[in-house]
Amino acid sequence: MRLEVEIRSKSYTSANGKRQEVISDIAFALQRGEVGVVVGPSGCGKSTMLRILAGLDPDYQGRVSQPAGARLAMVFQEPRLLPWRSVEENIRLAAPDVAEDRLAAIFGVLELGAHRTHFPGELSLGLARRVALARAFAVEPDFLILDEPLASLDDALAARLREEIATLVASRPMITLLVTHSMDDAVRLGDRIFLLSSRPARLLHAVTIDVPRAQRSNADVAALKADLARLDFSVS
Ligand SMILES: Nc1ncnc2c1ncn2[C@@H]1O[C@H](COP(=O)(O)OP(=O)(O)OP(=O)(O)O)[C@@H](O)[C@H]1O
């Protein structure tokens, strides 16, 4: 199973009728079991790229090929839960066939057990993100897209959720693509890191991390970040 991405160009027409190119050249491939992490400056076109990969936007030049029948789950920056449904109902609506033991395992990893009957309006952002992640994993996807899952959380909460995401990703052989602004998250969670230029987004560097995710020590993480800092790249 393999995801192949080749976006040669993507433009929007702005309100004044001008075409604005948002993506100029992004090409990469990911295998089953791999986590790709996309890092790029604000507004460079990352969410646009994710929408193309998810099949939500067919208006671009290039080609994206996903394995036939691949099941997709996507976690957006805002959790997008149904406000009038409980946590458990939100998940069961998306994944009606999920087995109780699988659901219990996901709730266990994400520490959501006590919140099954709560409603989205009662949840903090961190908890709502966990519910959105639980829903994505309950679907048992072949291809998982995570758009900045750790943004706007305090450091301690983000570190905990990062561990939980790592545990869930390791529990299932799928293709994962994650967007982040954080090099730390990128080198802790990723197997391959794709560094994008400012708009229009171009793939500047594709870096493969050789140390397996589960064996990466803090010293490895620091060394990898130092390697990346030497590249011609800036997130700002
Ligand atoms: N539907 C649209 N119509 C016109 N322009 C758009 C549309 N969607 C996005 N854009 C523009 O395309 C550019 C890229 O937006 P996008 O949301 O993909 O960037 P991003 O890298 O995800 O940003 P951030 O890091 O801030 O989340 C921005 O300049 C944005 O204003």
UniProtKB/TrEMBL annotation:
PROSITE patterns: ABC_TRANSPORTER_2
Gene3D superfamilies with a match to the protein in the record: P-loop containing nucleotide triphosphate hydrolases
Residue ranges of every copy of the ABC transporter domain listed in the record: 7-223
InterPro entries: AAA+_ATPase, ABC_transporter-like_ATP-bd, ABC_transporter_ATP-bind, P-loop_NTPase
Statement: the UniProt record of this protein carries the keyword ATP-binding: yes
MF-aspect GO terms: ATP binding
One Pfam family this sequence matches: ABC_tran
Keywords associated with the record: ATP-binding, Nucleotide-binding, Transport
Role: Involved in beta-(1-->2)glucan export. Transmembrane domains (TMD) form a pore in the inner membrane and the ATP-binding domain (NBD) is responsible for energy generation.
Protein family according to the UniProt entry: Belongs to the ABC transporter superfamily.
Protein name in the entry: ATP-binding cassette domain-containing protein
Organism this protein belongs to: Bradyrhizobium aeschynomenes
UniProt lineage: Bacteria, Pseudomonadati, Pseudomonadota, Alphaproteobacteria, Hyphomicrobiales
